[in-house]
Amino acid sequence: MEAVLDHIGVAVRSIDEALPFYLNVLNGSLTDRYTSNTAGVEVHVAVMETNGQTIELLEPTNNDSPIARFIRQKGKGVHHVAYQVDDLDQAILEARQNGVRFLEDTLRVNSRGRKLIYINPVSTDGTLIELCEYQK
After folding, report:
1. What CATH number does residue 15 fall under?
2. Least buried of 36, 39, 85, 95, by fewest C-beta within 10 Å?
3. Can you give the residue range of the structural domain that contains 40?
4. What is the pTM of this model?
5. Where is the VOC domain (predicted)?
Protein backbone atom coordinates (compact mmCIF):
# COMPACT_ATOMS: atom_id res chain seq x y z
CA MET A 1 0.00 0.00 0.00
CA GLU A 2 1.33 3.37 -0.98
CA ALA A 3 -0.25 6.16 1.07
CA VAL A 4 0.11 9.93 0.82
CA LEU A 5 -0.95 12.38 3.52
CA ASP A 6 -4.33 13.75 2.42
CA HIS A 7 -5.60 15.89 5.30
CA ILE A 8 -5.78 16.42 9.04
CA GLY A 9 -9.22 16.45 10.70
CA VAL A 10 -9.49 18.86 13.64
CA ALA A 11 -12.41 18.67 16.08
CA VAL A 12 -13.75 22.12 17.05
CA ARG A 13 -16.75 23.29 19.02
CA SER A 14 -17.48 26.05 16.51
CA ILE A 15 -16.17 26.35 12.96
CA ASP A 16 -17.05 30.04 12.93
CA GLU A 17 -14.87 30.64 16.00
CA ALA A 18 -11.98 28.51 14.70
CA LEU A 19 -11.90 29.85 11.11
CA PRO A 20 -10.19 33.21 11.80
CA PHE A 21 -7.04 31.47 13.02
CA TYR A 22 -6.75 29.38 9.87
CA LEU A 23 -7.67 32.25 7.55
CA ASN A 24 -5.78 35.12 9.18
CA VAL A 25 -2.88 33.58 11.05
CA LEU A 26 -2.06 30.66 8.75
CA ASN A 27 -3.18 32.56 5.61
CA GLY A 28 -5.37 29.65 4.60
CA SER A 29 -8.29 29.70 2.23
CA LEU A 30 -11.68 28.15 2.74
CA THR A 31 -12.22 25.79 -0.20
CA ASP A 32 -15.41 23.99 0.84
CA ARG A 33 -18.00 23.97 3.58
CA TYR A 34 -20.75 21.39 3.97
CA THR A 35 -22.78 19.36 6.44
CA SER A 36 -23.01 15.59 6.58
CA ASN A 37 -26.18 14.32 8.22
CA THR A 38 -25.32 10.67 7.54
CA ALA A 39 -26.14 8.57 10.59
CA GLY A 40 -22.99 8.02 12.62
CA VAL A 41 -21.25 11.04 11.06
CA GLU A 42 -23.37 14.15 11.82
CA VAL A 43 -20.80 16.86 11.29
CA HIS A 44 -20.31 20.33 9.82
CA VAL A 45 -17.07 20.46 7.79
CA ALA A 46 -14.95 23.40 6.68
CA VAL A 47 -12.12 22.48 4.31
CA MET A 48 -9.07 24.75 4.53
CA GLU A 49 -6.06 24.85 2.21
CA THR A 50 -2.76 26.25 3.45
CA ASN A 51 0.25 26.00 1.12
CA GLY A 52 -1.19 22.94 -0.61
CA GLN A 53 -2.02 21.17 2.65
CA THR A 54 -5.59 20.40 3.69
CA ILE A 55 -7.17 20.73 7.12
CA GLU A 56 -10.78 19.80 7.79
CA LEU A 57 -12.43 21.58 10.71
CA LEU A 58 -15.09 19.27 12.17
CA GLU A 59 -17.97 20.63 14.26
CA PRO A 60 -20.59 18.28 15.70
CA THR A 61 -24.18 18.81 14.55
CA ASN A 62 -25.60 17.21 17.71
CA ASN A 63 -24.50 15.93 21.12
CA ASP A 64 -24.46 12.28 19.98
CA SER A 65 -22.21 12.67 16.93
CA PRO A 66 -18.77 11.06 16.93
CA ILE A 67 -17.12 14.50 16.99
CA ALA A 68 -19.20 15.55 20.02
CA ARG A 69 -18.16 12.36 21.83
CA PHE A 70 -14.52 12.95 20.86
CA ILE A 71 -14.58 16.50 22.25
CA ARG A 72 -16.19 15.29 25.51
CA GLN A 73 -13.56 12.56 25.93
CA LYS A 74 -10.40 14.23 24.65
CA GLY A 75 -11.18 17.90 24.09
CA LYS A 76 -10.75 19.92 20.93
CA GLY A 77 -7.85 19.18 18.62
CA VAL A 78 -6.58 16.68 16.09
CA HIS A 79 -9.27 14.07 15.52
CA HIS A 80 -7.69 12.06 12.70
CA VAL A 81 -4.96 11.91 10.09
CA ALA A 82 -6.04 10.86 6.60
CA TYR A 83 -3.97 9.11 3.96
CA GLN A 84 -4.96 8.83 0.32
CA VAL A 85 -4.52 5.48 -1.40
CA ASP A 86 -5.03 4.54 -5.05
CA ASP A 87 -7.26 1.54 -4.33
CA LEU A 88 -9.02 1.50 -0.97
CA ASP A 89 -10.22 -2.10 -1.23
CA GLN A 90 -6.67 -3.29 -1.93
CA ALA A 91 -5.25 -1.12 0.86
CA ILE A 92 -7.75 -2.61 3.33
CA LEU A 93 -6.85 -6.15 2.22
CA GLU A 94 -3.11 -5.51 2.58
CA ALA A 95 -3.54 -3.84 5.97
CA ARG A 96 -5.66 -6.75 7.25
CA GLN A 97 -2.92 -9.15 6.14
CA ASN A 98 -0.67 -7.20 8.50
CA GLY A 99 -3.11 -7.53 11.41
CA VAL A 100 -4.67 -4.07 11.12
CA ARG A 101 -8.20 -3.76 12.45
CA PHE A 102 -10.77 -1.35 11.02
CA LEU A 103 -13.84 0.42 12.35
CA GLU A 104 -16.03 -1.50 9.89
CA ASP A 105 -19.08 0.74 10.25
CA THR A 106 -17.10 3.74 8.96
CA LEU A 107 -16.66 2.38 5.42
CA ARG A 108 -18.58 4.73 3.13
CA VAL A 109 -18.49 7.21 0.29
CA ASN A 110 -18.92 10.72 1.66
CA SER A 111 -21.01 13.48 0.11
CA ARG A 112 -17.96 14.73 -1.82
CA GLY A 113 -17.31 11.35 -3.46
CA ARG A 114 -14.41 10.29 -1.25
CA LYS A 115 -14.49 6.57 -0.35
CA LEU A 116 -13.09 6.11 3.15
CA ILE A 117 -12.67 3.94 6.21
CA TYR A 118 -11.10 4.52 9.62
CA ILE A 119 -8.48 2.23 11.14
CA ASN A 120 -9.21 1.14 14.68
CA PRO A 121 -6.84 3.10 16.96
CA VAL A 122 -5.84 -0.15 18.70
CA SER A 123 -3.85 -0.89 15.52
CA THR A 124 -2.11 2.51 15.44
CA ASP A 125 -1.04 3.12 19.04
CA GLY A 126 -4.03 5.37 19.62
CA THR A 127 -4.19 7.57 16.51
CA LEU A 128 -7.38 7.54 14.46
CA ILE A 129 -6.29 7.12 10.84
CA GLU A 130 -8.51 7.45 7.79
CA LEU A 131 -7.69 5.75 4.52
CA CYS A 132 -9.38 7.37 1.55
CA GLU A 133 -9.68 7.02 -2.20
CA TYR A 134 -11.06 9.66 -4.55
CA GLN A 135 -13.44 8.29 -7.12
CA LYS A 136 -12.09 8.51 -10.64
Report:
1. 3.10.180.10
2. 39
3. 3-134
4. 0.92
5. 4-134
